Amino acid sequence: MTDNIPDEVLRQEVNPGKWSALDNIAHLAVFQPIFQRRLQRVADEEVPLFEPYTWQEDELFAQYRQLSNRELLAQYRHDREAFIRFVEGLKEGDFRRAGAPSGVRKLNAAQLVEMFLLHESHHLFTIFKLLNFNK
């Protein structure tokens, strides 16, 4: 979706005060390993509580916002391969174990993976809209 779009275009703040397309890509790249660590906690701990993610306090996100689209996509793809291997390595019982994201009822690991994918889809759709609906 973003391969052939110049970084200058991806960095444009189409809606003042809102993330650019590149900011959304940086968020997806940063959040994937965070979510994997959360799933690891579900496998290791008894109903871990997850603090809300605060992008304003995330130094890695600030660094990722400075990267090019090509660099972000490479990182995202690398981490997605690791995420898939991790999820495939979970035991059946791990998917029934639960965690509690802040402000959300307790969810089992399978539901948490669904939530992660829906969250990702939201940002992908946001990127699509930023690149196509605001012309």
Helix-strand layout with pairing:
Elements: H1 7-10, H2 21-44, E1 49-50, H3 59-64, H4 69-89, E2 98-101, E3 107-108, H5 109-132
Parallel strand pairs: 1-2
Antiparallel strand pairs: 2-3
Distinctive features:
single chain, three-stranded mixed beta sheet
Strand content: 5-15%
For the secondary structure, the number of strands is 3
Measured as a percent range, the helix fraction is 55-70%
Q: Give me the secondary-structure category.
A: mainly alpha
Strand order of the largest sheet: 1-2-3
N-to-C order of helices and strands: HHEHHEEH
| Unreliable stretches covering 5 or more consecutive residues | none
Q: How confident is the prediction overall: mean pLDDT?
A: 94
Rg is: 16 Å
- Count of separate DSSP helical elements: 5
Shape: elongated
* Main β-sheet description: 3 strands, mixed
The termini sit apart by 16 Å
Question: How would you characterize the overall build of this protein?
Answer:
The protein is mostly helical and 135 residues long. The chain is 59% helix and 6% strand. The protein has helices spanning 7-10, 21-44, 59-64, 69-89, 109-132, and strands spanning 49-50, 98-101, 107-108. Strands 1-2-3 form a three-stranded mixed β-sheet. Helix 2 (21-44) packs parallel to helix 4 (69-89) and helix 2 (21-44) packs antiparallel against helix 5. The longest helix is centred in the N-terminal third of the chain and has 24 residues, at 21-44. The chain is elongated, with a radius of gyration of 16 Å. The two termini are 16 Å apart. The mean pLDDT is 94.
